[in-house]
């Protein structure tokens, strides 16, 4: 007789936990966190309406890890320091491609955004943290985010290549 009561109790308990398992906290917080760490829409990253003065590319690397060349765009200065935007290469990870765009004002990293990133929960949570740490460190010398190690490593590779390409 007791087993007849236990079965519905177990089924209803599991059914009540399903929404918790499917809940993605980053779906509602992404915009607020993104604004806090310097991620801004493409339209807001353009600081000058003047055309780019220089655009350079390097040949694509056919080896594992990168599939697209870094792209560098230098804009005429709107303030005392020149604003330069550099796209890092696409880095392949087991979860998907990672590519970043870095904006420099003079020699300082002033903005970073993902152009490509895996569509996974850990990556969505790690992206703002990686960007925040980059802006704080001013370099690619940052720690990986636990739970998103592959994305973190791809991010650092693309970021470092963009920083290296900025000097050219």
CATH architectural group:
Alpha-Beta Complex
Alpha-carbon distance between the two ends: 79 Å
Structural class: alpha+beta
Rg over C-alpha atoms, rounded to the nearest angstrom:
21 Å
Low-pLDDT runs of 5+ residues are 28-55, 57-64
Main sheet: strands, sense, barrel: 6 strands, antiparallel
- Number of DSSP helical runs: 5
Q: Estimate the helix proportion, in percent.
A: 40-55%
- Assembly context of the chains: single chain
Indicate the CATH topology.
Sufe protein. Chain: A
Could you say how many structural domains there are in total?
A: 1
Which outline best applies? elongated
Encode the helix/strand succession as letters.
Answer: HHHEEEEEEHH
Description of the molecule:
The chain is built from 5 helices and 6 strands. The chain has 168 residues and is of the alpha+beta class. The protein has a single domain, classed as Sufe protein. Chain: A. Strands 1, 2, 3, 4, 5 and 6 form a 6-stranded antiparallel beta sheet that branches. Helix 2 packs parallel to helix 4 (121-137). The chain is elongated and about 75 Å long. The N and C termini lie far apart (79 Å). One of its GO terms (molecular function) is FMN binding. Residues 41-79 are annotated as: Disordered. Pfam families: FMN_bind.
């Amino acid at each position: 007789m007791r087993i007849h009561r236990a079965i519905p109790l177990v089924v209803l308990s599991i059914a009540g936990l399903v929404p918790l398992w499917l809940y993605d906290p980053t779906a509602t917080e992404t915009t607020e966190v993104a604004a806090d760490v310097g991620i801004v829409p493409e339209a807001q990253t353009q600081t000058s309406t003047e055309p780019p003065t220089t655009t350079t590319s390097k040949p694509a690397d056919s080896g594992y890890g990168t599939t697209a060349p870094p792209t560098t765009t230098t804009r005429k200065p709107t303030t005392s320091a020149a604003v330069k935007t550099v796209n890092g290469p696409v880095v392949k990870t087991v979860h998907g491609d990672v590519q970043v765009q870095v904006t420099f004002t003079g020699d300082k990293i002033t903005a970073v955004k993902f152009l490509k990133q895996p569509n996974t929960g850990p990556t969505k949570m790690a992206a703002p943290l990686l960007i925040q740490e980059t802006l704080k460190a001013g370099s690619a010398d940052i720690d990986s985010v636990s739970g998103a190690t592959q994305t973190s490593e791809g991010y650092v590779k693309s970021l470092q290549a963009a920083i290296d390409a900025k000097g050219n």
